[in-house]
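User: Batch of two.

Assistant: Item 1 of 2:
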Amino acid sequence: MTARVTTVAFAGIETIAVDVQVQMASGLPAFSVVGLPDKAVSEARERVRSALSSMGLALPPKRITINLAPADLLKEGSHFDLPIALGLLAEMDVIGHEDIARFLALGELGLDGSITSVGGVLPAAMEASMQEFGVICPCDNGAEALWAGDLEILAPKSLVSLINHFKGTQILARPRAIANVAPAGPVSDLRDIKGQESAKRALEIAAAGGHNLLMSGPPGSGKSMLAARLPGILPDLDARQALETTVIHSVSGLLPEGGLIRTRPFRQPHHSASMPALVGGGHRVKPGEMSLAHNGVLFLDELPEFQRNVLDALRQPLETGQVSVARANAHVTYPARVQLVAAMNPCRCGYLGDNDLACSRAPRCGEDYQARLSGPLLDRFDIQIDVPAVKPEELDLPANGETSATVRERVFLARELQMLRYKNEHISTNALADGEVLQTAAAPDDAGRELLQDATRRMKLSARGYHRILRVARTIADLAGSSIVKRPHIAEALNYRQMMYRR
């Protein structure tokens, strides 16, 4: 009789059911794994053999064949260890075939028979829930599987405890839920930043509408500090967004606590990051920083220092909200709806415009430095601001600005207005509004329309730039509690597009 155990393979964040078939037949002793396994799956033979040996069990001298169906699908990862071991135990009559028939299993085995954590337990548990199966997963991932719904979950620490559970001598308790994952480290407060009132205003608008933000200024002006305080004024994720974000981190193996991610991700890759690291890909097609920042903030400091082809790879995902990685043997799509925040110096020395500190090559050095950024990429920043150096007299003053909590309340109210406005459009912020939805929601009054049309001609705005100004103006109106976009709102939004048109 062939033992069968259900597990999953991953294609992006999607799961594909895999039938692990274990057969022991007469013949010369052998242990083979077929069904297009990668190196980690092939090495499962030694881990499983050692784990069984640690319990005093030896594989019988037979021809053992493990088939992973469908056979034409590449199987990657160490989570196949546990289903292979369960199939062998069933074939050896240690456990019953019917015991494992109603479960989806995944987990990595240690040489001592322990079951160690793996990535992707949450989407695997969601797949099991849809098939009305239970889940067998490592103890460290048990709390993660709970978020998939009301299903039977076995989360043993070792193979021995799992066998004892099936024999009824040591029943496994249901895993205990873990509270929502808290952000790492203390959240910085906006009140810590002295001066920069205009930049703080732009940051509030960006947070309220989910707009992309580009800051340019000399070193030490507070650009990175401003970006680090953006998560503190953003509202928490709703239930759907939290589940989406948690699934991505689960597949990436970055969810050690097993809790649901409720705070918005804030990812800050170094400017030496490669294209696969930033947008996803690589040999095993893993999520990049852009997908790990889904529903959150992707902060790119020293923007012109990134490789140009890496930055240009961001352009399409910023518009579509997803990353598509095409390979000869795989085509994978990851969600990547991010709020892009970037900071840059005006030139390589950083002091363009300062007669005392600028280098001798000014203004040519600034032109060369800013030319590293393509026009289409800059056009995707809704808000572009200059962040000047802080005046010495402001540094001596005590921190007495608004706190992040105060600004967050205004951002929350503006987001609520947007949720109500777009409740039938499946979008949540002004930054995602487009087409007829945007024209209806952000239609300016006569004076505002006249100003916008005049600015479009003078600044030679592209269609994308025109619509982005409307989105920002709609957010400014929401913060002001106005149902109509008026001329002052358009004027302020135009002020945030000046940087690009000075190039």
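Item 2 of 2:
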Amino acid sequence: MQEQRGVKKVGNQDNTKQTGLRRELKARHLGMISLGGTIGTGLFLASGGAISSAGPGGALLAYALIGCMVFFLMTSLAEMAAFMPVSGSFSTYATRFVDESFGFALGWNYWFNWAITIAAELVAVTLIMDFWFPDVPSWIWSAVSLLIMFLLNYISVKGFGESEYWFSLIKVVTVIIFIIVGILMIVGILGEESRGFSNFTVGEAPFKGGFLALLGVFMAAGFSFQGTELLGAAAGEADDPKNSIPKAIRSVFWRILLFYILAIFVIGLIIPYTTDSLASDDVRLSPFTLVFEKAGIAFAASVMNAVILTAVLSAGNSGMYASTRMLWNLAKEGKAPAFLGKLNKNGVPVNALLATAAVGCVAFLTSFFGNGIVYTWLLNISGMAGFIVWIGIAVSHYRFRKAYLAQGNDIKDLPYTAKFYPAAPILAFTLCVIVIIGQSFSSFTDGGIDWGNFIASYIGIPVFLLCWIIFKAKKKTKVHKLEEVDLTTPEHETAPE
């Protein structure tokens, strides 16, 4: 690396001094953190709806296309994170490589995204626990879950990493067992007599509903894959980011893609897309439950309910971690109140953690008032936020590579180099825009436009733009010239001993 450019090498000995956080997350933690944010209800429940809507072939194609887009985004993120491993991740990259106001909006957008997701997980917990304990008040389970998530994040980053590792491992083992059981059923060793590929030719299969159905599943798949970018937020606490981040991203992508593609393939072969229960959100009718029941596994519904509970707690746990680190970083950069940038003796940003938990709790309470209208709008803002973050990653990487070369650096000096540049970030950007635009298709009916649904689908965009414009007008920021982009690694205060 060329020292005259001010690029600081990142090593194991001085990493704590650079960020103020404890670098205690190993490669196995990083991999499972990303898996924990991705493998959840989107696979265990929504995959059935995808097959029902577009047929087994349509679901496979949609998830494969989104998987390719995520691969490009994650390699882009890996290149930047290995070079500049900070907990601000995409917010810091957008600030450094594009424009400070863009980084401000992206950071607050991401924090809000996961803070509201915590609320969504608290609601999901009440539905899951009602399966076993229908007479217990739902708020009790939400309170217990929130306390568990808070404590796992409060103890230390290593405690969070270990808890997320085991949470995610349960889900991974479940999916692997499911795929093995499914293959044994397909070849006729378990359950009913093998039907081969007959369910791929039932009715309109393998593709049902045409382009619009495929687009709908394409968007749903995008939501299912959200969470892979959690690795970026964890980069600031990775023990060996130069090596562990690229390794984790490569392995995680292929695991996620294989898990989703193989699981959907197995479901499509065993259960006809015409099965009404595939589109249900009831865990008793989950495609995983249905397949296990067909295999003769007793208590399949209870087992899957327990796994889904683990998935929900894992997603909430990861979300609280990511949003807390993003809020802490915003405070350190002067984009949030300074008290949120304080660390405790274990290197945990407790004030940011408390603020995040409080917002998640308040958002959860809105689900009980006004028929949940406010809560629904909050969820829609949150859902759009994930795609905005992905666009931010693509734009930041495109600018980073150009700035790196413009300042006379050699690509060979990068700890990790993303493949297919610049086509990869451009393609990822384009697909994200298509998914965002596609949100409105369900709003157009024969009778006109469903304005309520239209606004709910897009409300996240004006919120993001408002943050961007207000900060830009106040600070009068401009897009950085490539030759002036700051490629030095930020330094923050150390954690108290």
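The chain has a mean pLDDT of 82.
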